[in-house]
C-alpha cells in the first residue's frame, strides 16, 4: 500500500482542530495463551507506504532491542523497528505482519506491526489524555480515541526515535535578559527537551501539556495584565507550540491567540516532525511567525530571541 493509497485526499481546513489517523494493531499473546489486538494510530501525513514483513532476524549487535535491521526501499536504506518490543507486547510473528514506512523528523523509518485497519478523521477535542484512562508505561502514547468497542492509542513516534537515538548536544545562544516563554507540548520527552534548551539560554519557560491548557494560561496572563494595567509582555513574551496535541492543536491555539487584540501581538513558533509545504501554508494562514521541524528544536532559543527583539518580521 503506497502513500497515495493511504491518503484520503481530504484537506483539513486550518484551525478546525482535526487530523487524520491511520489505525493499526499489534497482536499480543497473553499469559493464558489468548491472543488480543491492541489498537494504535498515527498521523496519516507521516506514512509513506505499507509493505509486507521483510522477515528480518535482529542482529546480535543491535543498538536497541527493537531494532530488527535495515531494508532497501527505492533509493533508501531504512531501519526497521519492532514496535511490539518497544511497547513491551508479546507479539507472535507471522507472514501476515506488515511494516509501516514513515517519514518525519528528516528520517525514514519502518515499524513492524501486525496489521492495519482503516483511516479515521478525528478532532483533537475527541482525543482523551491517556493518564485519565490507562496507566502508561511510555510517554509515546499521547492520547486515546474512543471508537465504541475499542480505544485507539495515538502514538508519538518521534518520542520513540528520540529515546532510541538521543540528539547530540548543541551550542546555544544566551539571552541578555530572562524573556518569558509559554510552551505547549503533549510529549513529556519533548517538553523536557524544550524546557532544558530554553533554560540553558536564560529564558524563563512556562510549560503546558496541550494547546487548551496553553490558551487558558495565556488568557490568565491577559487578565492579570489588564487588572494591573501592564503590557502583556510583562507576563509572557512568546509562545512555542507543537502542532499535534490532544484537546487543541497548535494551529487552533495560534489562531485563537492571533485573533485576540491583546494576545495577538505575541510571536508564535510552531514545530512538528512533518513541516510539509501544506502544513507550512496552514501555519502561515493562522499567523505563526516561524515553523520548524522537531530535529531543529535546538534552534528555538535563537529564533525566539530574534522574534522578541524584532530581528525577524
TrEMBL record:
CheW-like domain ranges (all copies): 18-166
GO BP terms, alphabetized: chemotaxis; phosphorelay signal transduction system
Protein name: Response regulator receiver modulated CheW protein
Organism: Pseudodesulfovibrio piezophilus (strain DSM 21447 / JCM 15486 / C1TLV30) (Desulfovibrio piezophilus)
4-aspartylphosphate: modified positions: 242
Family annotation (SUPFAM superfamilies): CheW-like (SSF50341), CheY-like (SSF52172)
UniProt keywords, alphabetically: Phosphoprotein
PANTHER family in UniProt: CHEMOTAXIS PROTEIN CHEV (PTHR47233)
Pfam families: CheW, Response_reg
The organism's place on the tree of life at top rank: Bacteria
UniProt keyword Phosphoprotein present: yes
Keyword Phosphoprotein tagged: yes
Domain Response regulatory stretches: 180-309
